[in-house]
Amino acid sequence: MEAVVLEKVHELKIRDIDLPMEVGPHDVRIAVHTVGICGSDVHYYQHGAIGPFVVREPMVMGHEASGTVVEVGSAVHHLQVGDRVCMEPGIPDADSKAARLGMYNLDPAVRFWATPPVHGCLMPYVVHPATFTYKLPNSISFAEGAMVEPLAVGMHAAVKARIKPGDLAVVLGAGTIGMLTALAALAGGCSQVVITDVQQPKLDLAAKLGPITPVNVTKQNLVEVVHELTDGWGADIVFEASGNERSAASVFDALCPGGCVVFIGMPAAPVTLDIVAAQAKEAHIETIFRYAHVYPRALALMGSGKIDVKPLITDTFEFKDSIAAFDYAGHMRPESVKIQIVLPQTR
Ligand SMILES: [Zn+2]
């Protein structure tokens, strides 16, 4: 089976790889349709590691995927051959303490696609636990189905923020995760979102997605904009979605007294936070690591039309052009948000 394999840092190949494809009683086999390229995929390609996760052996890329069920295990009842699905890439040990506490994303033994040493899904077929395979609503395309994974991150952040109807949220960073967090915050009850970035085309796109005020921080002052919108009070919630060190250090500036900060982006180096600035506002500080059981609600919001991710899918490549897609993702034009790869559907 041909797969997109990261041989080592800077070396990506489309080549044959032999992987176990046995369908256990609780598994399904899926013909993969669409796979999104994530910042983490690009990071492994360019740097060979993210924190403690180091690429030491060839690894199949990709973790944002949708496809069609082609075989179901004997104990699977909620899925059938032909079902259009998306797959949750992180599989915990169901018996782990973290799983039993309802935070399976924090299970130290979780196996997450395309996080070394676990293979990803950028190949024609995958075998996956049925429990972590979700049917797509009829109105949702495969391309949108492959967006559920990054949307789940934004949804998890919105849940952690404990949004109250009418809240104003700031989202720092208008990349894929920032934009999806903005959509999740609006769907979760925020009246409006202020989103920041340094790339004007991304901000222009964000402004079309809903009641979203773009702020180009190279030209505008975020605190001034937020104070203008809130009579000087500040934002109820600040989502840090850029991963930029300076941005992460500035999260309390635009926050209102008693407000909530959610750290989503992962800065490359430790960041110094002004504790007194947080104390002066009695800020609530939340963090997220991926998500836990968010897919059903993300799919419900997409299926009902409350969240539309289509405008964020800006570039689509064919499977045979996967290497070019990854090279492009590493140096993409500022208009690009989500890059996806579509696999051939006649096999
Ligand atoms: Zn991702």
What can you see in these coordinates?
The chain has 347 residues and is of the alpha/beta class. It has two domains: 2-147 and 309-342, Medium-chain alcohol dehydrogenases, catalytic domain (Quinone Oxidoreductase, Chain A, domain 1); 152-287, NAD(P)-binding Rossmann-like Domain (Rossmann fold). The protein is 25% helix and 29% strand. The protein has eleven helices and 20 strands. Strands 3, 7, 8, 11, 12, 19 and 20 form a seven-stranded mixed beta sheet that branches. β13 (168-172), α5 (176-187) and β14 (192-197) form a beta-alpha-beta unit. The longest helix is centred in the middle third of the chain and has 13 residues, at 148-160. It is globular. The model has no long low-confidence stretch (mean pLDDT 97).
